[in-house]
Structure formats: structure tokens, C-alpha cells
Amino acid sequence: MEASAGLVAGSHNRNELVVIHGHEEPKPLKDLSGQVCEICGDEIGLTVDGDLFVACNECGFPVCRPCYEYERREGSQLCPQCRTRYKRLKGSPRVEGDEDEEDVDDIEHEFNIDDEQNKNKNIAEAMLHGKMSYGRGPEDDENAQYPPVIAGVRSRPVSGEFPISSYAHGDQMLASSLHKRVHPYPVSEPGSARWDEKKEGAWKERMDDWKMQQGNLGPDQADDSADPDMAMVDEARQPLSRKVPIASSKINPYRMVIVARLFILAIFLRYRILNPVHDAIGLWLTSIICEIWFAFSWILDQFPKWFPIDRETYLDRLSLRYEREGEPNMLSPVDIFVSTVDPMKEPPLVTANTVLSILAMDYPVDKISCYISDDGASMLTFEALSETAEFARKWVPFCKKFQIEPRAPEMYFSSKMDYLKDKVQPTFVKERRAMKREYEEFKVRINALVAKAMKVPQEGWIMQDGTPWPGNNTKDHPGMIQVFLGQSGGLDADGNELPRLVYVSREKRPGFQHHKKAGAMNALVRVSGVLTNAPFMLNLDCDHYLNNSKAAREAMCFLMDPQIGRKVCYVQFPQRFDGIDRNDRYANRNTVFFDINMKGLDGIQGPVYVGTGCVFRRQALYGYEPPKGPKRPKMVSCDCCPCFGRRKKLQKYAKHGVKGDVANTQGFDDDKELLMSQMNFEKKFGQSAIFVTSTLMVEGGVPPSSSPAALLKEAIHVISCGYEDKTEWGSELGWIYGSITEDILTGFKMHCRGWRSIYCMPKRPAFKGSAPINLSDRLNQVLRWALGSVEIFFSRHSPVWYGYKGGKLKWLERFAYVNTTVYPFTSIPLLAYCTLPAICLLTGKFIMPEISTFASLFFIALFLSIFTTGILELRWSGVSIEEWWRNEQFWVIGGVSAHLFAVVQGLLKILAGIDTNFTVTSKASDDEDFGELYAFKWTTLLIPPTTILIINLVGVVAGISDAINNGSQSWGPLFGKLFFAFWVIVHLYPFLKGLMGKQNRTPTIVVIWSVLLASIFSLLWVRIDPFVMKTKGPNVTQCGINC
């Protein structure tokens, strides 16, 4: 497909389309059917008895005999996948360590292995072409061809031109293969250790020479340990990542304190329940209910942090394994999604910087495709992206030539750093100055577009060729696709290829439900599946740029790792932010969540999806379950107890895998063959033959049967507003609908299917974004998150009752998901608890009776356990105590404001059907540093915390004045009430500071203490004023009240 060939707009339902003509010579497709060695890429071969050679009887990892014998003789003698020691097979020489084994050479004859791999070849073609109807006309059916794709078979690599490939099928459409038996050994996948079928060069020659000499070399005759090439090969075979457990000296005391705190909390609640306050039963009962809820909430939050872990990645091993010199690059392609809606709130310059950082990332250019979703159909976004594509021709080669970081020009040129550090090229300074001038001119052009867009013409926007802009009506417009950069016409200033850049605006019509961001992301999934179909997808918000150019490689260390990658649905990166004040007054960095909670979840089943900075496996988004990979049964005799247990387990597994006509199906293809046998593709994925075919390509790639014009026509079709009708999109596939926080639901569904996720925290943050730093915007952002959690709690996907079937979601992971949906409800007891101190001070009553010395030990132990838990948590996580304290403060501020309103709005939506629309948080920044921090914007969210703050301040003054009037005996009970009230005031202090705005002269804390001290001093002066006559009344204790 040629870049800049014109905007493609159309509506499938209205039969409107602007077709782009362009073709390319067909490219041959190489047949890769058959088992190959995962180490050297050669055929595995057969044993002397004609059976398939099996090196490891535990996991069946495909290895040829030469590599097996070489590993036994020169290597670690361990299977690369399950790390089990290789046993001596028939015909293999003995090596050191074989003496402990039984002298049996026929181990491989214990199981019957039938190689039926070749039956997989044309299963998708036979089903799609022969048995499905997609509602197309006869002219489409005549030219329709579908490639022989299925799990484990590599499709044509993606190029920027979307070339046509004519693959001769012959008559090999085997309908019987729909009921085939799947080979019990794992097939090759993009994340496996196999390097490719095209291996040739030095490695191939060395292996061939070694095989020729194998017969003459004894076990001790050849020594290649000094060969640097062999050392490199050994390094490439090592894992691409590893877990780094928290030191036991840090985590064990932490766990012990958690258990102790749980025990102390139980004793404390027991004492509180058994010792009521009879003269203030209402206050006592309210406090008891609040404390029980706080204890329940603490358990949900604390125990998912029981197994925190860190991770390390090895980028050098990734390059050694998939980027060998002189051979095709085998890194998996990545489709990158950037979503934007309103260019007035999400400035085009911010989006442009995100796109430029993506195009300049350290990854093979032919493996990157960037898709921009413009859900507002704005001509400003379209023209800004056109300018960005032109500037990228100069910016991308500059970044790669001098290896600069970060690769977003605004952040690079504005950052206060030594830009000459580690730079040795003499032309760097000159080229940097020239590039900075180019970027400033680029900013001026973008600013001119923004200024032009401020005043919309009465007749609507007109494109440069005189055509009306199709998106003039943002609620009624056709789908639009524009390829800005690609292979043809997508070259940089040095003549090198640039990554693909595609503009997408899905069709919108009145009367259709479009599902906001979740619907836009699903449209991008389908468009990318038709045009490029990369096996992995990176999702970014428009204000989150790549701060680390190797971020995609970091994710590939997990997703392409042959040990753990096959069951990983996504790799989540932490969110980091620019433009936040040093004190982080409103906890915008959210480090407690990203550095503590997410690490804890990574040790269970993986972190939750947080909406951006996440690399997905496409097959997981398509609703498939993770590959099962059944283990081989243990070698036991037929007449012992374990044999019966094994048989029962095998029967249970077979029962799980049998449905309808696929009684013999096992392994990775279970889900797909079940769909094939039941003919459910249309209901699941929609009526698009090309897209459905792409869903079967586990390793990605474009179907080689369609021309670029056909691909574009299909892409317009899959973004039509009625495409998702009567399909599983939004309910089982893609981003899940039903909540404005679609990210939580999407990750939750994947974990319920048995997938696990990974939390990746590279030393240099992978992505950085902008956050709202003034109080009003921050509270509105938190309101939207909390409202989404309330919607999930009342939906059918609530983690309280959903996902128990199959037992694939671990219990601690479920605790975390339940906590993400119930935390807004904590606002109700929190509001009551923050009001109690003022009531106690104003009425003279308290929520607790007088306590004995022994009972006071419960309170002391509880407070000590709370502080100790926090300190030990900070110790193993590395979070500073200031960040922890800011998080505690904003927990109270958000709890009594945004969370409370979210509960009310959620109940109104569920019970009364009153829907609430959220607004996009502004990403613009003030010219002055942290200027937005002091911007005061009144909102109803400020009313509850303001009320709580005022009544507690009044209560403190009233309590102290009452104690002064009643004498010294009143000060003892007052201290408990004052401590309670000051706890509330200190937590609301950042709110008070934001409420009062910027204080250039007098710090806010001085104002607060001035008011308090002035009030107390005035009351005290009135009490001791010598000019006032003191009157002494009767002694009530002696005379009685009526004396």
C-alpha cells in the first residue's frame, strides 16, 4: 500500500467507498509443515524404529538427535524447557551421570507417538472456503482465496506495501482434518526457542560439519568450550528474563507483622464490640460498623501483596536469539495503538510527540505499525498527523544516528540534562541545533493549525483538494483510513524505510452504541488485523510517549520467551508522569499502587491492566484460552496406586477437551478446532472473511490472497458501526464493554480464562505521560475511575461472583479484583468516621468508654502494627515515606469526595437509569512551571471535604474552650478526641492548601495555626480576665442539682 495515496473513506452498509489502486508482485510462501528442532532448526528426524525422535520424555521439547547428544556431552545435560536431566536413549553413548539410571534403552517406546502434523496444513482454508458464508456477492466469491493458516504455521511477513501472494493450494483441502488428533508435543510458536526455518550461514555450516564428524568423535575428543561462537550460542539459549524474589530478610518480617496485625485487629474488634458506650450508643455503633468495614477493606488490599517479586530482562540474549547477523530478523511485529478524542483537550502537539517517539523506537522498522484512532473525526488531528509524518522523516534518522533518549522531541529539547554526555560524533552539536530549529518550525505549524481550528467555518471544513471533510458531523460520518507512512513513499531523509503510520476514524451513525474508548480500541484491533496483523499490540494514551526506546524489546523478553511466553496475555508497564510538582501534593504519581500493589500481584497471576503502557498478545484479546500443553504421564507400573490416580486425571482432562465432534482434540488447538466444528466464526468475530482468517494466524502476518484495494475495503468494513452487531465483541472479545473503566474488565476476563500477565519495570521508565495536577481535575479523574469500579461491581462481570467456573483465577488475584470494585464504597464509612471527632467534641461524648491499662495495650499494639507494616512495606518496595504519606492523605481526600459521588452516581445509573458522561482530562500545561497546580476550579466535589474540615476545626476550638471552662479534670478525656480530630485535619491538609490557592507570602500552615492559636488564646484570656467578677455557685456534689 502506498503511503500518502489519499484518504480512504466509506461506509460498508451504505456501499460507499473510495478505492485506492496499487498492486505488488506476489511473493512465495514457504511451507513450514513438520516438526523442526527448536535449537538448530533442522528436521527432528526419526528413530531407528521409524518413530519421531523424542529427546525429553517429561515435556516433549522438540530437539534433534545431534543437538540432544551435544547437550548431553558438552552442555548442562538438561532439557532447555523443563530443565529435567536428559536420559540416555537407545543408540546414544553413555556420559557421566548415566550410572545412576536404569540400564534401559527403550524409554521412548513407552508411549506411542503419531506424527500427524501435516494434517494441519489447510484446515482453515477448508473450513473458511468450503463451509462459511459471509454475505458477499458472487463477484467476491469468485476471487476469494484464503491462505492455509493455522496455529503453528508461519504466514507471510508483513511489509509496508501489503503485497499480494499467490500461494498454490492444489487440492489439499482435508475436511477430515477438522477431527484430527493434535500431536502431543508443543508446536513451534513465535515466542518459542526456534529461530526460523531460514537459518543459514555460519551456524548452519558449523552444525553440518559437526554432524559429519559425529561418528568419529568420542565423548571426550571434541572440546568447543573455547569457541566464542559456541559461547554465544549457549548464551542465546538462556532464559530471556528471570524472577528476582524479594530478600527474605525484608519479606519475612513483613509477613510476620501482617499476621500479627491480623491477630491484634481481631482482639481489638472483639474488645470494641464487647464494651459499648451506653450514653452514646449511636456514636459507638457507627464507629464499630466503620471499623469492621475498614478491617475488611484492609484484608482485601493487604493479602494480594503477600508474594511481591521483581523481574530482570536480558536484552542481549533477545538479540542473540532473534537478531543474528546475516540472518532475517525474527523479532515479532508489534502494532501500536494511540487513541485520541478531542484535540482541544488533548493538544495535537502532545499526540505528535507520542507518535514521533513511537516511530523512532529501537525496533526493526518493518516490524512496527502505528495506528492513530481519532474518535472525534477531527480535521485538526488529521492535518497535524500529516505534518508529523513529514517531520518524522528528519527526526527518526537523527534519533537513531545519535541514540538519544527520550525520543519525543518536546521532552528531549526541554529536559534539563547534559545532552553532550556519551556523545562522541563531531557533527552532533551542529545537527542537534539544526534539528531543534526544525522542531521549533514544526511546533509553529502545529500551533497555526490549532489557531485555525478555533473558528469552525459555517459550511464545515474543506480539504485542500476542495472536498468537504467527511467528519464535519462528528456524530454522523463514514469510516476513514489514511496511510501516511509505509514502504512506498515512506522513506526518511537518509533514504531508509520508516515504520507504518495509519490514521483511523471509525464510522459513527445516530442510533448506534459506540462504547467510547473501548469501542475505538476494538475497531483498531480489527483494522490492524486486516492490514498488518502483528501478533502483539501496544496500547498507549495520546499523552504517553516512549521514554525508553527499548520498551518493546523489554516486553518481548517475556512474550517471546519459550519458557513463560506462551501463557502471558500482556506485559504491563508502570505509569510515570512529567510535570508534577516536587511535593506531589495530590499523589498523582501513585507510586504506592504501581510500586507496591502491582509488584505483589505479579507474584500471583499478574498485574491488572491499567489502560495504557501495555503490550498485549493478540490471541488473548481474541478470547482464546492459553495453550494447555498437557504434560506427559509419569512412568509408573500398571498395578500400583499412582496408576489409578493418573488414569483418573487423564479421563478428567479428556472430558474437558471433548465437545461435539472433536473428541480426540488436545493441546493448543482445542479452542480453535471447537470453533471450526461448530461453525461459530461469524457469531464470534463478525462477517469478514479476511479478518476471520487473520485470527487463526498465531504468528501474525497478512493473508496473502487479497490485493491492497481489497484489504482497504475490508478495513472500512470492519470499522463500520454495525459490524459488532450479534457478535461477541465487547462481551468476550477485545476490550470489554459495560464500564467506563474498560481496562479493569478486559484484564479480568483474560485472567479468568487462565492467562497470566507480567509486570515489567525497567530501570529507565518505559513510558511517561501527563497528569492533572490541580485539585479539581484530579478529583474528576478519580471520580471517573471510581464510577467505573461501581459499574463493574453491579455488572455480570463483577469479580465477586464471576469467573468461578474452571477455577483459573487464583484466590489472591480475585481479592485484588474485588478490592478494585468495592473501594469506592469505603467512602460511606470514611465520611462517617471523619465526622465523628467533631460530633464528639461538640457533644462532649466519645465513641469509647474509659479504658483500663490492660485495654490500652490493644490500642498501642494496633497502632504499632500499622506503623510497622507501613515501614516494612516501604523497605522492600523502595517507596519513600513522603510518597506513602501523600497516598494516605489523598485516600482520605478522594474518599470523602470523588468516591462518595461515584457511589451516588453509580446507584442512580443502576436503579434509575440516569447515565453520567465523563469528560476527558485536560492534557494541556501552563507556561508557568506548575501553573495549573494553583488553578482553582470550583466543583461540587469540594463540598463534602470542606464541610468536614470546617466542623472539625470548629470542634477543636469548642472542645478546648469547654475544657478550659470545666477545669483541669476535663483535659484527660479531651486528648483522645483532639487526637481523633487532628488525624482528620492532617489528612485533609493538602485539600485545604489547594482550596486556599497560591500563597505567595504567608504559607498555608501558618494561616491555619494562626487561626487556631488566636481562637484558643482569646478563649483563655476570657477565662482568666482579672477585670471580670468571679461568681462562685453552690457545690452541686454536696447539695444536689436542685439546691
Largest sheet: 10 strands, mixed
The chain-level structural class is alpha/beta
pLDDT < 50 runs, ≥5 residues: 19-33, 101-200, 215-225, 635-668, 925-931, 999-1003, 1025-1032
Cα-atom Rg, whole angstroms?
Answer: 33 Å
What's the oligomerization state? Answer: single chain
**Secondary structure tally, helices:** 33
| Morphology call | globular
In the sheet with the most strands, the strands line up as: 2-1-7-8-6-5-9-13-11-14
- Mean pLDDT equals 75
- The helix content is 40-55%
Number of strands: 15
User: Could you give the distance between the termini?
Assistant: 103 Å
The fraction of residues assigned to DSSP E strands is 5-15%
Subcellular location: Cell membrane
Cofactor: Zn(2+); Mn(2+)
Catalytic activity: [(1->4)-beta-D-glucosyl](n) + UDP-alpha-D-glucose = [(1->4)-beta-D-glucosyl](n+1) + UDP + H(+)
Enzyme class: transferase
Can you describe this structure?
The chain is of the alpha/beta class and 1043 residues long. The protein has 33 helices and 15 strands. A ten-stranded mixed β-sheet has the order 2-1-7-8-6-5-9-13-11-14, with helices on both faces. Strands 10-15-12 form a three-stranded mixed β-sheet. The chain is globular.
